[in-house]
Amino acid sequence: MTGTRLLLTVALLCSCTQLLADANSWWSLAMNPVQRPEMYIIGAQPVCSQLPGLSPGQRKLCQLYQEHMVYIGEGAKNAIKECQYQFRQRRWNCSTVDNTSVFGRVMKIGSRETAFTYAVSAAGVVNAISRACREGELSTCGCSRTARPKDLPRDWLWGGCGDNVEYGYRFAKEFVDAREREKNYAKGSEEQARTLMNLQNNEAGRRAVYKLADVACKCHGVSGSCSLKTCWLQLADFRKVGDLLKEKYDSAAAMRISRKGKLELVNNRFNSPTQEDLVYIDPSPDYCLRNETTGSLGTQGRLCNKTSEGMDGCELMCCGRGYDQFKSIQVERCHCKFHWCCFVKCKKCTEIVDQYVCK
Amino acid sequence: MAGAIIENMSTKKLCIVGGILLIFQVIAFLVGGLIAPSPTTAMHYMSIKCVDVRKNHHKTKWLMPWGPNQCERIRDLDEAMSRQIEANDIVFAVHIPLPAKEMSPWFQFILVILQLDIAFKKNNEIKDNAEVTLDVSLAYRDDMFSEWKEMAHAIETRKLKCSFASPKTIEHEGRHYDCDALHFMEIGTVAHKFYLLNIRLPVNERKLINVGIGEIKDVRLVSIHQNGGFTKVWFAMKTFLTPSIFIIMVWYWRRITMMTRAPVLLEKVIFALGISMTFINIPVEWFSIGFDWTWMLLFGDIRQGIFYAMLLSFWIIFCGEHMMDQNERNHLSGYWKQVGPIAVGAFCLFIFDMCERGVQLKNPFYSIWTTDVGTELAMAFIIVAGICLCLYFLFLCFMVFQVFRNISGKQSSLPAMSKARRLHYEGLIFRFKFLMLITLACAAMTIIFFIVSQVTEGHWKWGDFTVQGNSAFFTGIYGMWNLYVFALMFLYAPSHKNYGEDQSNGDLGVSSGEELQLTTTITHVDGPTEVYKLARKEAQE
Fold first, then answer.
1. Best residue in B78, B85, B101, B381 to probe A by mutation, most A CBs within 10 Å?
2. pLDDT tens-digit series, residues B165-218
3. What is the DSSP letter of A305?
4. Which GO terms describe its cellular component (chain B) (predicted)?
5. What value does the mean pLDDT take over residues B383-396?
6. How does pLDDT run across B259-309, given as a tens digit for each residue?
7. Residues B175, B169: Cα–Cα separation, whole Å
């Protein structure tokens, strides 16, 4: 049994090494902890070449902005967490498969789910870089419209520095889109369609962060009157970004490539998508059953909700295959006493709950 | 008999003066819009969570968020939980500014706002009327390697005003509350290059300190400072305006003292307005570049307050002196009803400002709004000042209405009057209407620009070209009121020119009541002229 499986995998591996190599992505930064830059000797740049999943363009950016890599990894990690939260009740639950391709072969298909994943991870990078800016971790942050360290003190003194969110947006655009930009496909080809789709979805993700960042203001004129008012952008909780992108996922537009090499709507009756909308080019694969070619993991063994009629209900989740019931003891913390940090004193309350698992 | 310059000036000359003033006005706007950057910048800081390990080793008291001597930091508070670090040992450290930058006296002030990221937990919700107690200390140094010197230390409480948008179910655990930003700190000079803030949130269950404030995830700060570029442009403007106003003031006073009679009230008020304008203009702020004068903000507020009070008084007195009725005023005491509210209102605002900015000189973390009593007190002062202002405007509107009523009354009887009197009244009406017009124009400009600057983002882009709306607003409006005072002193100064030779042959046989009015209104009689003497005589009869 194991032997045949092994053989199968080997055979699969052989036939798809080309594909697999291509499936590597910068998302892998989330899985492999990136070492903090201060740990390396200055000048040596093995980090960037050792990091799996970077395209040549991204590798170059990595060399230029080494300190950013940790935060890109963090952003990707947050994005995956958010994706898994948003899709916890769906057949495809954003589960990670391995450390290099991260989501596995499902991402080869230009489906809605892929669109969401690209968008949310681009959003994660904007978020993480902007945050790192605020922590003062990035030396190029804030004042660097372009790299011009010589003018920096003067700029800073004269007119302050640009906004962190703006910097996060620009850097994420450079980095995340680098992979798509460095490829050149024939006009109207499948690959070009996919590239365009990725670019659009990355942009939608980044814009979601920007759009949800709200402007906060403070009045501070004479005696605190509003004759002077200063405003700044304030990043929203990343959960809100996830919520928005999930909405965009539900209203994503199906596209196809035109002969001119542009994406166009499959169904002309709909409004064409704006830069904030998600698009996809392929129908979603069947996520019910495990399928090695599509990369679907299937829903076997997933927990489901017996009473729900939605996607998390056992009927839909298990694709009509039925479910097993078992009792489990859940230990919950209750009657807790908290401090704002680090201190929780709870009693343990146990509860027996029925759980259902897809066949 | 001499009137003000404005009456005796030819229309052509008046237009030329108006044109020149307009050019200066446009320049004032352009200086702000094109040269100066935006007036202020906000910088974000995410505080670094340091672990205070002093119990074990005796290091310095100050915890640095980054750099060579950085503290032992934790990435998030879950890590603290797993390492069993207590809440009392966590210090939120923020270094102002960000690495590779330094603060400068040109920034004039730093205002810091505190924002707490509090996650919702079903078991650990924010209680009603929750208060957070902060143990804050501020230190400074002027180079990267010297020791930190303490500048201030305080234990402050702030009220948490948080709301939660989603339903409070387990499902939404981990989402953040929407909390109002809290006032944190304000310092009136930026005399040092680097500042360090260490914030602790001590927990004391017995005294219920920092209990029931939810699960704090992050402490974020926003610091606001004036931009160096804006400060430079502003100072330059003040330095240019001070001598201009001062010279015209001296000239104006010389004109008045050259007359044989003593100056009347209106002339004195205009002069006082000039003095208060000069007082604002004098660029004492230059000293803030070299000296650590923390009271600069307060001083600036007081200067502005004096100018506003002066301007409001001037309007009232100007209306009163152009009333053209029988009452003899010419004395400040005649205006106590109108000037009283201004004085009371200004005094209230002064007390309020002393309570806020005055105390901040001692404790930069203080704010009157953070306590209930303080809030009520502050509100009381502001409401009294507001009532005074309303009262004042009612009086002013009523007076303006009265003047217009008298004007229309006089206008109908103008043709029947003798030439000297007609000219006199025409002069009065013209002077009043002219000032009314420019005052309204200036006030309207101020209000419109204020609203625009509040509503819009404050800068507009045309290609590579950015116009800083907010800066233009400040320099433009500031320039405008300077020009207003300048024009006032120039145009309303007594003129040397006479109405003409024929004034003495004019038929002066008029009733005594009407003539008396001529003496009560201002700036017209250059010493006891024929008219004046005649009027007196007739009045005595």
1. B101
2. 888 888 888 889 999 999 999 998 999 999 999 999 998 888 888 888 888 988
3. B
4. cytosol; early endosome; endoplasmic reticulum; Golgi membrane; plasma membrane; trans-Golgi network
5. 92
6. 888 888 888 999 999 999 999 999 999 998 988 888 888 898 899 999 999
7. 11
Q: Is B352 on the interface with A (CB under 8 A)?
A: yes
Mark out the alpha helices in A107-259 (DSSP H runs): 112-135, 152-159, 164-181, 190-212, 238-250
Three-state secondary-structure class, residue B392: helix
On the question of a cis peptide bond just before residue A37, with omega within 30 degrees of 0, the verdict is no
3-state secondary structure of A150: coil
Q: How far is B164 from chain A (nearest CA, A)?
A: 12
Residues of B in contact with A336 (CB under 8 A): 123-124
Q: Please give the backbone phi and psi of residue B488, each rounded to the nearest 5 degrees, phi first.
A: -60, -45
In this structure, chain A runs to a length of: 359
Q: Which residues of chain B are within 8 Å of residue A218 when distances are taken between CB atoms?
A: 42, 111, 113, 181, 222, 224
Quickly tell me which residue has 């209230």 as its tokens: B348
ipTM passes above 0.85: no
pLDDT at B20 over 80: yes
Query: How buried is A164 (Cβ within 10 angstroms: 0-12 exposed, 13-18 middle, 19+ buried)?
Result: buried
Q: How far is CA B189 from CA A111, B99, B100, B147, B207, in A?
A: 57, 21, 21, 21, 36
User: pLDDT-derived band of residue B67, with 50, 70 and 90 as boundaries?
Assistant: confident
At position A137, the amino acid (one-letter code) is: E
Q: Cα–Cα distance between A43 and A39 in angstroms, integer? A: 12
Give the full edge-to-edge strand order of the sheet including A344-358: A303-304, A344-358, A323-338
Long-range CB contacts (within 8 A, 24+) of A32-40: A32/A73, A32/A99, A33/A73, A34/A69, A34/A70, A34/A72, A34/A73, A35/A70, A36/A70, A37/A66, A37/A67, A37/A69, A37/A70, A40/A66
Using CA coordinates, name the residue in chain A closest to B381: A223
pLDDT at B102: 87
What distance in Å separates the CA atoms of residue A345 and residue A16, rounded to the nearest whole number? Answer: 53
Q: How far apart are alpha carbons A230 and B154 in whole angstroms?
A: 26
B210-263 pLDDT, tens digit per residue, is 888 888 988 999 999 999 999 999 999 999 999 999 999 999 999 899 888 888
What is the arrangement of strands in the sheet containing B40-46, beginning at the earlier edge strand? B40-46, B215-226, B110-119, B182-187
pLDDT for B513: 41
Enumerate long-range contacts of A348-352, CB under 8 Å, 24 or more apart: A352/A327, A352/A328
Alpha-carbon Rg for chain B in angstroms = 31
Cβ atoms A358, A299 nearer than 8 A: yes
Q: Where in chain A is the domain with CATH 3.30.2460.20?
A: 302-358
Best A34, A134, A167, A217 residue to mutate vs chain B (most B CBs within 10 Å): A134
Residue A156 is nearest to which of B101, B181, B230, comparing CB atoms? B101
Answer yes or no: are the C-beta atoms of B132 and B87 closer than 8 Å: no
C-alpha to C-alpha distance for B160 and A181, rounded to whole angstroms: 47
Which strand (E) or helix (H) includes residue B12? helix B11-30
- CA-only gyration radius of chain A, Å: 23
Contact B304 A222 (CB under 8 A): yes
Helix (H, G, I), strand (E, B) or coil at A343: coil
Give residues 48 to 67 of B whose Cβ lies within 8 Å of A: 48, 65-66
| Class in CATH terms, A302-358 | alpha beta
Give the Cα separation of A328 and A331 in Å (integer): 10
- Verify whether the Cβ–Cβ distance A141 to B98 is below 8 Å: yes
